[in-house]
Amino acid sequence: MADKVDRLIRLYFQNMFPKLINLKKAELAVHTGTDENVGGGKLENNYNNPVEGAMSKAEMNKDLNDLIRQEYIIGSFYRSARPDIQEVLVDKYRKQMSWVRIASDHNIDEKTARRWRDDFKRGVSAWIP
Questions:
Q1: CB within 8 Å of 118: residues ≥ 6 apart
Q2: Are 89 and 13 a contacting pair, CB within 8 Å?
Q3: pLDDT tens digits along 48-70
Q4: What's the CATH number of domain 53-129, 3.10.180.10, 3.40.50.10470, 3.40.1440.10, 1.10.10.10?
Q5: Which of 6, 35, 53, 66 has the fewest CB atoms within 10 Å, i.e. is most exposed?
Q6: Is residue 98 scored above 50 in pLDDT?
Q7: Domain residue spans in the chain?
Q8: Taking 80 as the threshold, does the pLDDT of residue 92 lie above it?
Q9: Rounded Cα–Cα distance for residues 83 and 80 (Å)
Q10: Where residue 13 falls among pLDDT bands split at 50, 70, 90?
Q11: CA 74 – CA 4 distance, rounded (Å)
Q12: pLDDT (0 to 100) of residue 1
């Protein structure tokens, strides 16, 4: 089940979302230096505020907004899960333990651990397109 949601959950548990968000913000902060005034006419009503322009560019960027939204959704579902389910998710995604080891460490059936993971993924995938 290595699908998009599984990959995003793995990124969340490996604490990669803050790094990806900061990288995307840094990419947006780099000025390309291209002149959009190709018509040759005089630019009227020129309002140039670089800070406001950078903020506007970041707010309108779909990839950045998707990363922030995905981190929020996964974090919300994780924080609302029961502590035993949280431990299973951490063992699977952060510690990358096998299902057999997770089941024996938590004194549950392997099917139960997988079902908890699948329920978590189903809940997250309902909110992440």
A1: 1
A2: yes
A3: 666 655 556 667 889 999 999 99
A4: 1.10.10.10
A5: 35
A6: yes
A7: 53-129
A8: yes
A9: 9
A10: very high
A11: 13
A12: 42
Closest CA to 17 of 61, 62, 73: 73
Contact of 88 with 107, CB cutoff 8 Å: no
Whether residue 113 contacts residue 88, with contact meaning beta carbons closer than 8 Å, is answered with yes
Distance (Å, rounded) from C-alpha 23 to C-alpha 78? Answer: 24
- Supply 33's token pair: 């230096």
pLDDT of residue 49: 62
**Has residue 2 got a pLDDT over 60?**
no
